[in-house]
Amino acid sequence: MLDSTRVINGTYGYVYYDGRWLTNIKSAEASVEVTKEEIKRSGTRWTAHKVTGLSGTGTITGYKVTSEFVELIGQIADDTQGTFATELILKLEDPESYGAYRVRLKGVTFDKIPLMNFEVGSIVEEELPFNFTGYELMDKLVAE
Questions:
Q1: Which of 7, 25, 30, 21 lies closest to 95 in space, CA to CA?
Q2: Is the pTM here over 0.90, yes or no?
Q3: Which of 32, 87, 36 shows the shortest CA–CA distance to 57?
Q4: 56-69: string of b/e by CB count within 10 Å (b at 16+)?
């Protein structure tokens, strides 16, 4: 039977960049899409599939507090610099869950430079979509 107290509350989600907790982040998601090719086989109507690639994507969204990420991501606009690549750690640590769940995202590069976004009378938020090229499950959730 499901113990509802063990269901994780997203309020306890954290994003870390360069060892620092990004306290302005209010949502994060990351996933890996599995690319497959269809394999037709003789003697059967069933189509099999062969995994041919992986693609990691995600988004972090938060309140606009500084221009730090605009500057870091924007270095690509300077012809003398390369792409900003980094790592992010995403963590869920609800005190009622079966412990902490942490994922390290490797080779993170961002998809756009968020120069300006506002609406009169509203809190300014910033959305940062990204790609990544690997991950590591640092802490896993295991039922006791």
A1: 7
A2: no
A3: 32
A4: bebebebebeeeeb
Tens-place pLDDT, residues 100-144: 889 999 999 999 999 999 999 999 999 999 999 999 999 887 887
End-to-end alpha carbon distance in the chain: 13
SS3 assignment for 43-106: CCCCEEEEEEEEEEEEEEEEECCCCHHHHHHHHHHCCCCCCCCEEEEEEECCCCCCCCEEEEEE
Which pLDDT does position 5 carry in this prediction?
85
What whole-number percentage of the chain has pLDDT above 90? Answer: 81
- Cβ atoms of residues 83 and 109 within 8 Å: yes
Report the alpha-carbon distance of residue 90 to residue 100 in Å, rounded: 10
Collapsing DSSP to helix, strand or coil, 4 comes out as helix
